[in-house]
TrEMBL record:
Domain PPM-type phosphatase: 30-271
Protein name: PPM-type phosphatase domain-containing protein
GO molecular function, one term: hydrolase activity
Any Pfam family: PP2C_2
Organism encoding this protein: Rubripirellula reticaptiva
Keywords carried by this UniProt record: Hydrolase
Amino acid sequence: MLTTVAQPLRRLFVESDMEVPEIIDVTSGHVAVFCRRCPSKIEPNDDSAAMIQTVSGGIVMVVADGVGGCPLGYKASAIAVESIIESVHEAAPLSDLRPAILDGIERANEEILDLGIGAATTLAVVEIQDRVARAYQVGDSMTLMIGQRGALKWKSTPHSPVGYAIESGMLDEADAMHHDERHLVSNLVGSRSMHIEIGPARLLAAKDTVIVGSDGLFDNLHVREVIDLARSGKPVRRISMLADMATKRMTDPSDGQPGKPDDLAILIYSP
């Protein structure tokens, strides 16, 4: 049965430098959000995030990572998340959110290209409706769907040479974390060759968790570590442990462990 809510719930996190996570109550559970600027960074946070719960009960979570070194990366990521949320909001009476999400991504690409300054961003989007989740991706921000006991039920593939090498089995994750080309991205919003990858529709079990994060998370923690920290417990505890561990790796990497100072954006949906 389709769940309905009286009013849509929208939250945007742009240029955020949060000290503590924010927990947003939604009809089917909770969305935990954490966005923080790279340690010791003066410029704005290039990572943006957003979520919306529509009147039809659907939930859409968005993470965008403005490309470092490009002009106004933070502006590109803000355009991306705002375009998605606005497009979904406009289509809110409809239960099928897929056309709105695709339209929002295309709008964002056109608007960023129109800036004419070479700005670009990654984008990861997840919609959840009636316990069915589907991910959309441009770039190397990632989505995980995991079970309460730690089973990895689905993972997006980063759009990068290293991401494709891991997916094909040519490179294992441990070596990839230290690869010289780890940070190259082959698909971006703000590119005339942008393409959108649409994941399969996945039915979530009662206690499944969905994680969306920028490479500030996944370049500092192995996928298995992310799963183990986020698979169970109260929402604030899950996201706090992820943020704390990623920050520790950024500022004080251990021997043999990944460590890359970066902006950080994490969203976790849990029932």
